[in-house]
Amino acid sequence: SAKDAGRNRYCVFEARMSAQSRDALLIDEALQQAIARKEFRLVYQPIVEARSRRLCKVEALLRWTNPALGFVPPDRFIPIAEESGQIVDIGAWVLQEAARQAHAWAGQAGAPGCISVNVSAAQLTDPDFMATVEDALMRSGAAASMLEVEMTERVLIEEADTVIRVIEALHARGLGSSLDDFGTGYSSLSYLTRFHLRTLKIDRAFVNGIEHDARNLALVRAIIAMGHSLGMQIVAEGVETEEQASLLADLGCEYLQGYLISRPLPPGELPGLTTTTEA
Ligand code: C2E
Ligand code: MG
Ligand code: MG
Ligand code: MG
After folding, report:
1. Cα 180 to ligand 1 centre (Å)
2. Tell me, what's the pLDDT at 139?
3. What DSSP designation does 111 have?
4. How far is CA 224 from CA 23, 47, 220, 231, 234, in A?
5. How far is CA 183 from the centre of its chain?
6. Is 211 helix (H, G, I), strand (E, B) or coil?
7. What is the pLDDT of residue 176?
8. Going by DSSP bridges, is the β-strand pair 40-49/55-66 parallel, antiparallel, or unpaired?
9. How much distance in Å is there from the Cα of 126 to the middle of ligand 2?
């Protein structure tokens, strides 16, 4: 009967849900020891100037391999760490490690001028966030100008007043800022004028297919114009083809990031750079 079918569907749904939440529990538990057991590392994805293809910055991306769970991608474990609050400690580790790497790269020929670090809402709204940044700078000896903080639109909407103050504090201290995954959030364009972020990163969903889809191209053109009118520099994320790269350069997009340029790499594999040992 229809009723039985409904019940079966419900059972399948419930089984899937509990498997999901059991995994989440395992991940949450394993994360608690991950820093102490040195299970994290950072990889760095090049961000190049669109016209010259010169390396300007890199984005630090977190990688986690646990002995029992194996490799767990960030899209899987970061939401869980955000939910539990562990992201604050994990994020502090990321800042420390990025600052250490920035200092190791400082002055090296061919090294990126800046490392961009992703931060979650819970980090930005943590009253100790600026102290955490300060601590990472002090312990590493890195210059503040070598670090930039990436945040998504969601953060801006949920905690607008706090985040405006934090962005100002970061800028006052000499760090950069960027708005990640632009276009996937919910912010109205006028809303963005409240935040004086330096860089706007166009989400790869819009970059994808601009060579085939006139509407996507029009949208990307409009985003670039809007970003520029707010005094922001533009990074296109997820650039995968030469055609996309040249269209974006023609549209005045300053920077490119994506598999066309390079996958995220361990620090020693960035072209023309030497490895450093972990602190
Ligand atoms: P994101 O900050 O938007 O990072 C860009 C993601 O796109 C990375 O995935 C990168 O590997 C991937 N990507 C880069 N170029 C291409 C391309 O050409 N094509 C495709 N298909 N993908 C490309 P990843 O490393 O898996 O990270 C996923 C997300 O996890 C990040 O998105 C970010 O939101 C989050 N994340 C990563 N590391 C951290 C971290 O240290 N802290 C926090 N809070 N979040 C992080
Ligand atoms: Mg990012
Ligand atoms: Mg992004
Ligand atoms: Mg993302």
Report:
1. 10
2. 98
3. -
4. 40, 17, 6, 11, 7
5. 15
6. coil
7. 98
8. antiparallel
9. 19
Ligand 4 geometric centre to CA of 184 (Å): 9
Do 159 and 179 contact (CB within 8 A), yes or no? Answer: no
Q: Which two tokens stand for residue 98?
A: 């990025």
Token pair of 233, please? 């520099």
> Rounded distance, CA 244 to CA 256, Å?
10
User: Residue length, the chain?
Assistant: 279
Which residue's CA is the nearest one to ligand 1's atom 17?
Answer: 238
Q: Are 53 and 46 in contact (CB under 8 A)?
A: no
Choose which residue among 42, 58, 61 to substitute to test ligand 1 binding: the one with the highest number of ligand atoms within 8 A of its C-beta: 61
Tokens of 264: 């995220």
pLDDT value, residue 7? 54
- Relative to beta strand 147-152, strand 40-49 is unpaired
Q: What local confidence, expressed as pLDDT, does residue 278 receive?
A: 46
From the alpha carbon of 73, which atom of ligand 1 is closest?
Answer: 26
ipTM over 0.90: yes
Query: Burial letters for 195-226: b for 16+ Cβ neighbours within 10 Å, e otherwise?
Result: bebbbbbbbbebbbebeeeeebbeebbebbee
Residues of the chain with pLDDT under 70: 1-17, 187-188, 272-279
